[in-house]
Specification:
single chain; 136 residues; mainly alpha; Growth Hormone, Chain: A
Length: 136
Amino acid sequence: MSNRADNMKFVVLISLVATIGGFLFGFDSGVINGTVDGLKLAFNSDSVATGFNVASMLLGCAAGALAAGRLADKFGRKKLLQVSAVLFVVSAWGSGIADTSLSFVIYRILGGLLLWRSVVASGGLCRIRCTTHQYY
């Protein structure tokens, strides 16, 4: 019974870690929507350009979601998540120091591309869940 309890603790821990990806995506969306006036002022942009600055991350999300499965199959989930963590720091840092609208959009798209990590992490979570619990 102890092995089953240990497995359940492991599944709960992995589930909590995997949900952080979804939380961070929602948090990022909320934060960027609260900075619309600041972006407009910082980059001296009109409404269309400011809207693109805010929405640019979604372009990366779409492209990243399309590539997530193939990348995970080719390089492995763990290695992909490690690289993703480093690149996400680069994306956050770049978004913070961006001095032009173009550089801001590039770093935002990079951040969006990296959101496929939630797809990769949840796929791994499903695999762990299925091996620890047998359904008859």
